[in-house]
Hints:
This protein has helices at residues 6-13, 18-31, 33-44, 49-65, 71-92, 95-111, 120-136, 142-162. It has 172 residues and is mostly helical.
Amino acid sequence: MDSPKLAELKKELNFHDAHQLKDLCLRIAKYKTENKELLHYLLFYHDKKNDYVEQVKELIINEFDDLHPSVYYVGKQLRKLTRVMNKHIKYIGEKPLEIEISITFCKCYIQHPIVKLNYKALELILFRQLKRINKLLPKLQEDFQFDYQQEFDELLSRLKKDKPSFNLRDIE
């Protein structure tokens, strides 16, 4: 069975009244946690995106505070954290806020003692976030671009200071 096209679904939704649409939304939310979380975001935070971003930042900071001392578990926790971040970024859907969340992750990573470790898997997690920021910066409006570029440059200089083996080619 093929999944229908979005345009087809939009046309069909026009034929339903508000009560039926409400029932359909609740039924969709019942089956997947991600659908429920997206519906929650759309209902309560769609017009308060900055509050939502602050909550995501707090979540990131708290997760870094609770990292396990073992490198193996740190890798698992950071991969899980990036999955959660990506989910929230997908809900928000705005590039400046995506960069803000990614910068928060990178700042927490660089401030944490794990930055001193030479564990390739952990470095790759950080480099992926830095690549994401580097890729999104040129797509922003100039005023946002200038602000975030300064933060990004500060991150890179701090990373070079803490980890002399870091090279800009790693994130390009």
